[in-house]
Amino acid sequence: MVSQVQSFFEHFLKENFIFQNKKFLQANYLPDLVMHRDDFMREMASILAPALKGDRPSNLFIYGKTGTGKTLITRRVTDDMERIAKENNIPLRVIYVNCKLRRVADTEYRLIAQLAREFGRVLPATGLPTDSVYSIFYELLDSKEQLVLLVLDEIDQLAKRAGDNLLYNLTRINTELKHAQLCLIGISNDLVFVDQLDARVKSSLSEEELLFPPYNAVQIHAILQERANKSFKENALQPGVLEKCAAYAAGEHGDARRALELLRVAGEIAERKSCQYVEIKHIDEAQEKIDRDRLYDLTLNQPRQYQALMYALLTLGLKQQSIVTGELYGVYEQTCHRLKLRPLTQRRISDVIGEFEMLGIAQTRVVSKGRYGRSRNIVLAVPRVSLPKMKELLVSSLGLNELEQV
DNA sequence: AGGTATTCACATGAAACTATTCTCTGAGTTAGG
DNA sequence: TAACTCAGAGAATAGTTTCATGTGAATACCTGT
């Protein structure tokens, strides 16, 4: 007898009308040619070109919102340069670091240690003074004649956490190097980031600047079309699907990455349902699924204390429209008591509420209620339909189930 | 009525503390010559 | 005497707590009409 699972798989293999090759829709795919960005590519290439002759190019600062192709273009250009350099025996080295990665390159010490690691030197995560990590890095960098292009992606995150001291050191590093030369390429999502920098850092970091504008709906549509042709089977998309996808993404400040993800997830939904086509309604479902998954993921990956607070927040949120800090703290304390957890101070909780806002779980507004003090009004920013499920997840994750619900 | 002083209930900021992980250094110990 | 062990001093970092100060407007309290 054929098991149900087996027949499911057979069915699955036979009945795939949708995908041809999904990889073109995945986030790490690096196309040879980035659409609607030719002029940026040319400009960046011409700024960086001196590197191939052994001259140090101007430092470059790139900014633009998420999903506008900054990282993609930079990777494309620097990859090509590295290849050409290799073919012609030019001592050029490209180092790409994403500064947002927690516990990798988000502080001064860690960034420098990470760079040293790129040169093949293993450094411990802690224990050494920062100065000595610096001098190790200098030594490695200056050990031979070479030109290093250092790409710092999400550099705003780094500056926020580590202070601009670090950037200052990096921009001046060339004056101390005898053999090697360093060229900085900073990439930032934050459009006002440069203005907040120390003037000296600002001027030397952004000797050249590139601003990537968001894509408009027409451009996103073209991008989707191009990738869809490669990844979907012929006629797998119903008319209007791409348009709808593009419209969604254009609404979200022209984020091409988001659009591609949306299309991919919609395809996966259609595939799972064994549909012949990706239909427009699948886009809506995909949008919902993406949001939902993100939310549940967020819920489950919080530390216990945060989950306790979130539980309190949901409990109150189900009962009333808006919540004030004091109320929430009270319920949170009760929750902690039930969990035999030592409650954090109100000060700390205040910050955690701020983090929840950052994560898009809640919206807050500081209001003064006159004689009755000043407090934060907290409103849940989560679709109401997700609340019970979220609460359920929390209950099981916290081990609250056998206890009486408040 | 109109003006101003209080007061509440937190927000917000800065500094200090705690705990963990890890290196480096130098004193004491051990084993072999 | 060289090699080894091990405790203690220092670092980096995350997550807090402690202490200090700030704040917007509803109310309480005056004041002169």
Report on the structure:
- The chain has 406 residues and is an alpha/beta fold.
- It has 3 domains: 175 residues, Rossmann fold, CATH 3.40.50; 84 residues, Helicase, Ruva Protein, domain 3 (Orthogonal Bundle), CATH 1.10.8; 97 residues, Orthogonal Bundle (Arc Repressor Mutant, subunit A).
- The longest helix has 21 residues.
- Strand 7 and strand 8 form a beta hairpin.
- Strands 2-3-4-1-5 form a 5-stranded parallel β-sheet, sandwiched between helices. It has a 3-stranded antiparallel β-sheet with strand order 6-8-7.
- The protein binds a DNA duplex (33 and 33 nucleotides) through helix 15, strand 7 and strand 8.
Question: What are the salient characteristics of this protein?
Answer:
406 residues, alpha/beta, Rossmann fold, Helicase, Ruva Protein, domain 3, Arc Repressor Mutant, subunit A, 3 domains, 3-stranded antiparallel beta sheet, 52% helix, globular, DNA-binding
CATH superfamily of the largest domain: P-loop containing nucleotide triphosphate hydrolases
The domain tally reads 3
CATH architecture descriptor name of the largest domain: 3-Layer(aba) Sandwich
State the CATH topology of the largest domain: Rossmann fold
Strand content: 5-15%
